Amino acid sequence: MAQPGVAKRRAVFIDRDGTINEEKEYLYRPEAFEFIPGVPEAIRILGEAGFLVVVVTNQSGVARGYYGEDDVRSLHRYMDELLLTAGAKVDAYYFCPHHPVNGVGEYRIDCRCRKPMPGMLLQAVSDLGIDLSASWMIGDKLADVEAGIAAGCRSAMVLTGYGTEEQTKLPVDVPVFKDLLAAAQAILTELPD
C-alpha cells in the first residue's frame, strides 16, 4: 500500500504477450519465451527515466486449465533473470487468471481485472502509489488500450503481436508505434528536462 504523504510515481504499464515477448498462444514455458527485439532496452530506459515498469497480462490459459498460476509466476521470474543481464527490471507483475466464458471452476468469472477492465492497473496504483495522469499503458490489442483509458492513463499501441490487425479498431487519438522501444523513446522525448 502506498504511504500517505509520499509523492506518487509515474508508471508505464505494459502488456506481456505480443508486446514484450513474441506472441505464442498460451505461453508459460521459459524455453518458449523470446523477447521482441529492443524490449530489454525499452524497459531499461524507462526505468532509468524514473518510470515504474509494471506488466499487466491476461492469462486465460490458467482459466482454461492449460497451466497454473505458479507457471505464470515462474515465467516472470525467468523474464527477470533475462532482463537483469540487460540492466533492466520490471517493478511488478499483475496477471488475470480468469475468463468469463472459457474458464474452468473458480476461474470462470466475469472479473474486474481482465483487460479491457482496469482492475490490474488500479491494483498497481493502490500497491505502488502510481499517478495515473502521468502514466502510460502500452499493448498490442484494443483491450490493452481500453484498460489504460478506463484507468485514467494515456494509452498507446504497438504493431508487434496483434497490433497490426488491432490498430484499425483504435480511437483516432491513440498513438501507434512500431514496437515497445519506439514507444518508450517517444514517451521519454515528452519528459521535461
UniProtKB/TrEMBL annotation:
Q: Required co-factor?
A: Mg(2+); Zn(2+)
Which residues of the sequence carry a binding annotation for Zn(2+)? 96, 98, 111, 113
Q: Where in the cell is it found?
A: Cytoplasm
What residues does the record give for site: Stabilizes the phosphoryl group? 57, 115
One GO term under biological process is:
carbohydrate metabolic process
Q: Which GO terms describe its cellular component?
A: cytoplasm
Quote the EC number.
3.1.3.-
Q: Which residues form the active site?
A: 15 (nucleophile), 17 (proton donor)
First-level EC class:
hydrolase
Keywords for this entry? Carbohydrate metabolism, Cytoplasm, Hydrolase, Magnesium, Metal-binding, Zinc
The UniProt record gives the binding positions of substrate as 15-17, 23-26, 57-60, 114-115, 141
Gene3D superfamilies per the record? HAD superfamily/HAD-like
GO MF terms held by the record = metal ion binding; phosphatase activity
* Residues binding Mg(2+), per UniProt: 15, 17, 140-141
Site note Contributes to substrate recognition, residues: 114
UniProt KW Cell membrane keyword: no
> Which Pfam families does the record associate with it?
Hydrolase_like
Q: Which domain of life is it from?
A: Bacteria
Primary location: cytoplasm
Q: Which NCBIfam families match?
A: GmhB_yaeD, HAD-SF-IIIA, Histidinol-ppas, PRK08942.1
Q: What family does the Swiss-Prot or TrEMBL record give for this protein?
A: Belongs to the gmhB family.
Q: What is this protein called?
A: D,D-heptose 1,7-bisphosphate phosphatase
Which gene holds the coding sequence for this protein? Answer: gmhB
